[in-house]
Amino acid sequence: MFHHSSQLQFEVKVDKPNPVFAKHLQQAIGGIEGEIRVAMQYFFQAMGARGDAKYRDMLMMTATEELSHIEFLGHAVALNLEGAPTSMQDEAAKDPIVNAIMGGMNPRHILSSGLSAMPVNSNGVPFDMSHVYATGNLGADMLANATAEAGGRVLASRLYNMTDDQGMKDMLSFLIARDTMHQQQWLAVIEELGGMEAQLPIPNSTPQEHEATAHSYYFLNTSLDEATPEGRWTSGPSLDGRSEFSVVEKIEPQGQKPSLGKARPDSAAQTEQM
Amino acid sequence: MFHHSSQLQFEVKVDKPNPVFAKHLQQAIGGIEGEIRVAMQYFFQAMGARGDAKYRDMLMMTATEELSHIEFLGHAVALNLEGAPTSMQDEAAKDPIVNAIMGGMNPRHILSSGLSAMPVNSNGVPFDMSHVYATGNLGADMLANATAEAGGRVLASRLYNMTDDQGMKDMLSFLIARDTMHQQQWLAVIEELGGMEAQLPIPNSTPQEHEATAHSYYFLNTSLDEATPEGRWTSGPSLDGRSEFSVVEKIEPQGQKPSLGKARPDSAAQTEQM
Amino acid sequence: MFHHSSQLQFEVKVDKPNPVFAKHLQQAIGGIEGEIRVAMQYFFQAMGARGDAKYRDMLMMTATEELSHIEFLGHAVALNLEGAPTSMQDEAAKDPIVNAIMGGMNPRHILSSGLSAMPVNSNGVPFDMSHVYATGNLGADMLANATAEAGGRVLASRLYNMTDDQGMKDMLSFLIARDTMHQQQWLAVIEELGGMEAQLPIPNSTPQEHEATAHSYYFLNTSLDEATPEGRWTSGPSLDGRSEFSVVEKIEPQGQKPSLGKARPDSAAQTEQM
Amino acid sequence: MFHHSSQLQFEVKVDKPNPVFAKHLQQAIGGIEGEIRVAMQYFFQAMGARGDAKYRDMLMMTATEELSHIEFLGHAVALNLEGAPTSMQDEAAKDPIVNAIMGGMNPRHILSSGLSAMPVNSNGVPFDMSHVYATGNLGADMLANATAEAGGRVLASRLYNMTDDQGMKDMLSFLIARDTMHQQQWLAVIEELGGMEAQLPIPNSTPQEHEATAHSYYFLNTSLDEATPEGRWTSGPSLDGRSEFSVVEKIEPQGQKPSLGKARPDSAAQTEQM
Amino acid sequence: MFHHSSQLQFEVKVDKPNPVFAKHLQQAIGGIEGEIRVAMQYFFQAMGARGDAKYRDMLMMTATEELSHIEFLGHAVALNLEGAPTSMQDEAAKDPIVNAIMGGMNPRHILSSGLSAMPVNSNGVPFDMSHVYATGNLGADMLANATAEAGGRVLASRLYNMTDDQGMKDMLSFLIARDTMHQQQWLAVIEELGGMEAQLPIPNSTPQEHEATAHSYYFLNTSLDEATPEGRWTSGPSLDGRSEFSVVEKIEPQGQKPSLGKARPDSAAQTEQM
Amino acid sequence: MFHHSSQLQFEVKVDKPNPVFAKHLQQAIGGIEGEIRVAMQYFFQAMGARGDAKYRDMLMMTATEELSHIEFLGHAVALNLEGAPTSMQDEAAKDPIVNAIMGGMNPRHILSSGLSAMPVNSNGVPFDMSHVYATGNLGADMLANATAEAGGRVLASRLYNMTDDQGMKDMLSFLIARDTMHQQQWLAVIEELGGMEAQLPIPNSTPQEHEATAHSYYFLNTSLDEATPEGRWTSGPSLDGRSEFSVVEKIEPQGQKPSLGKARPDSAAQTEQM
After folding, report:
1. For residues C227 and C230, what is the distance between their CA atoms, to the nearest angstrom?
2. Which of A5, B15, D122, E96 lies most in the core, judged by the most C-beta atoms within 10 Å?
3. Which domains, and CATH codes, for chain A?
4. What is the pTM of this model?
5. Which residues of chain A are within 8 Å of residue D100 when distances are taken between CB atoms?
């Protein structure tokens, strides 16, 4: 069950409202790297968690934190929209800077939301829940979460670089910090469970006899003219400790040339296909 | 530049065509765990790769392999649709098994594709390219790729469990194997670059002064009644080697109660809001 | 800021797990009539609320309640998936009832989520945030919320009719009750602000001189052969108390026949259009 | 059956073509507040209408009117695109105003439509039909329609404020007027049917015994630190006349702590979850 | 301006309501091959038509006809849903045929629309307007329209084959006939304008000097092991009459190996990329 | 099976990087007129091809070529983003030209991709695979392909007109040329199979008795006030050689006035509908 308290998790100050930056900030709310995504991803993972209950609790606690991040970012967007131009009709509109703002901000911040945040990304594309990755497999989910937080910290860093508003820098600095923790938090689950060697390959419960292991440890060079890029993945022990990496230099087809024969008479193909 | 040769990477045999399984297999083509996703994800990462060129080459080589996976899976779907019922009009349609097939298969396999594969998932939802994660950050991309392959191997394992067709089991067994390799391949890049300690937090180029480091290493308990779930993430050295994990037991708001004041007269709010 | 406590808002019991009903229940989570929608809609409206702060508080409190509804519904979906068939490979699969289940359930409940809830509707289509209606206009938002709750109670009533599982009926009965309250809660805001007469037309702040009032109060019959359907909307005082309803029996065009002339030479039209 | 006549419902004049305003106007065509939405919503409601046929007729008549609104708005977009810059290659492109236009207009107005209207919103996101709300319940549909028209009139008012082109102001003034009527028209159906007291809760056909009425009339305060916002919804008779409003000050969980136990061995979870 | 009359363009009779066939029929309403698509495509093409006004008129007339097709198909869906099972709670639900229907029909026909048509396809995916192709180029649009009608007639033929209800066969037979006409109608425009030789390549207004004509007439064999498939496209005069077809047997790269160098220090890449 | 070689199919040079043009170029990658679409469309058509195998081979060869087009366009986008402004914090940001660039470029080119190509269109909307048209009918597919290439060449011509960068003009000139060939290539299949007379109506395998041929060859005038636009489609032999074109001047309804009667008591409609 969820509860709410009235103050924001982090203070939001905007010294110089900037409606174009408001558009950019939306990526941190409704982008695939944003907070709606992680809030919902951890929430659905928690609801589907099977096994040791502590992972469920951990997921739900951080899901709850991410909801609070949406909240202060939403306030930041609204504050950046304070005083935005909403009209082309006065003299000011002939100012090229106003023109650039009217053209550069998200038009729906004026037309649809009345100068407040929306659950969309910086292109105005609404977030869709297909990005909530929750597989029922703890290892896959932990990697998905670390990925989401890596994307989130990359985004927060780019937003930090983009603005010179001190209040916004402070807020983004807080987000960068929390993303640091969250990246490690999810990877720490993998470490606690024995690390990559024990957890890979995911799912580690797939019986060996379900796997064509002759194909499990070679890097396949599909290029006609490039040498294989050598690295940790081309030789040495595999990360799961079960084998050695190797290389297949030139892909050799193992299958047939596909053919489907003629079309069925009742399939509404052209007569010539039958 | 891409090239094609006529045989499939892996042989596709279907002993007992099953149109409902054809629907399930679509998840491996057009699902978020599927092959279109990884093919396009590695392709776009390769096109945007900056830094050591060998990662670009590696990405492009595996992107190319994944295109070949789409190809044999597409053939597998078509073969599973051979002989599918396309009509309710004969006596057979009163057979409950035919009824269940007509209700259980993807109707668009009859209506839209004429008994062949589509770029959709097992619900018939078309794949959309928002799932192509390519950030320009090598670490974030490697985690995203390991995530995609973990999801892919979970899916292939579930499809393997679902079918009793030997040809399909063989094909899925091959996919399980390649996903094993690909999971490790991407994580091996991180290991080669010094492992998690060197690569975390992602991006590792964000200057420390951009980060509110007081908030970087604590697990935040947002629950009102649950004890903090203890683990690798609550104490001991952080995975990036820069600090120690700790716990904040009860979230303390640091921000204001948000308030936006009155609506602007020209904002088409209700008069009562102004 | 959000918080969480460990128990569900309402007890979830499933006497006879039913994986097809799990698919139906998804509509109440990820459908346009579902709980993600209202949780996010009230949350974004709260973040954008201007004017009397009590409406902001009210919105946030109910947003928080709706998050708790997602949570118990998510548990209900998972419990309905307990024991679901995940394989066609044993003898049981030849049982037509198992066949109908395998064909009738959401395949991604097996393949993607590992037998737990997803943020999708009963067709497996992911929820997308374009359905979060938050206009910055209190009146428009209150109507949107009453609409959402009306849709929600219609859905809950249909789900109630569909199942004969007592635990599920109890849970749905609770949802029906809360939707009763929420419908009235939002409409009560309008009543408190003077009712429809004071609040219509929305926005009530649009100056009269911005409106071609000659066209504001007639019902337009666009049919060539049907009489105007008479009712409260064809005569008597308008609901905003500003005028009388009337009828325009036959639509008369007031505009020109549109014409765009020739295509520009540089517009990549066909030569014949230029 | 539909018919067409050659003149527009309302005259469209554009004194000063403005390609950035053309982008904004798209919201009124392909936005969720736009005309495609209401045309299709009323059309599908009409096709599904059961009960007194006059509501079906009314819906179809207004659906038809809305199609005519799409038509004149589409012409308005095209006229605003007359003379738009389509090239960066001449000297004019160095003019910051041309630059701002090229950056601020919808690029697909040049690239995809050849300077004419598209069924997209002001972000260029195509309209999707999930926004066509048609429930088969007359009360829910009437609220949905009033909501759509409230959103539409808010939008038209904002577009009116944005432009200083007299022809565009006249056209928007007409839309504002028709939205006034349409808001009231749908709410008048509810009034004719006995008003909110008779129509609430929607659906009013749900038997009382299907509802946990103990939970039907209290406002739930889910905040840890905010007092309940008092208003029409916290005391006094409920709007459906069946009960009295009350308040539950602190949410008390009624359910269990959810637990799903261990993962099934065949579910491709990690071994540690089993 | 649009008008409506009360009778359907074609009579709809359903002898044996079939809720699973109702699901299939949805493809003809909300599928990419369906009537919403063509109605809106011709409407938007008409609104953007430049050049000889008769093409605009023709487009608008057929757009209007397609709206009438949506109307009778919508009625057909509703009639197929008459008497559909909406409950699992009675004894009938144990009947495998009822089970198959409950699993095989679109659940939203019960839950969301109350047994009537929706603007979705046979998978329940809502139609989205990105499929409205309207380029501003008459030739491209005519091909797009012929394509849409070809897809439509393929679909109608498959639906015809699927059902044994005489009323549905009659209705589909009418649709097959109209699609015959519409295919030819659009291609007849091309013939009237001089046929493919005059109209190709589209756009025929692109100056020859904008085209690298050395690459305009060869078929490129990108296969490593397949002979070029010989046909009308490998030799003989090109269809535009400007040249001769030829073959390039082996693709020769003309470009560089791409390289982007190092990442910018401010781009939030990993340090190792800089 | 696919292979890759290291050089681009065509050389990509960008003399003056232009981040706004990078946004425009995205339409050629991820737009409905773009290269992902045709690559995937031909690939899926090839996988579903039945009948003479040479069409399958031809489709696969050109699918492969289109993958190479994505590759060099992706490089072109990245090169146009070299040196793009990513920050508002220095003095340069006060320059109106920098402002216009920051407002006019795709923000996700900075925030999400780190200055490289994305699988999105020029509005930032991700490509979705519903645009991959593959019907299993050779004629319908050939028309769909010619349509796609017509749209592609229109787009390439508009992009050519838009830029004054010689390297970009050269690349687009190559694309214009290949689109010329591809348009004709697909239409040449129709010509080889006997031309439109033999191939129309599509599908040409639909038995005549499935078609209400009385409705197959007339143009229907649905306008109340416009004369029928005369042309090749109103008289003379039909393009399929089976009949003569004619005109129906005024649409006459052939169907009933639709009526669905009362709502079912268990359908959660309003009581008044029952």
Report:
1. 9
2. D122
3. 19-197 (1.20.1260.10), 208-248 (no CATH)
4. 0.97
5. 96, 99-100, 103-104
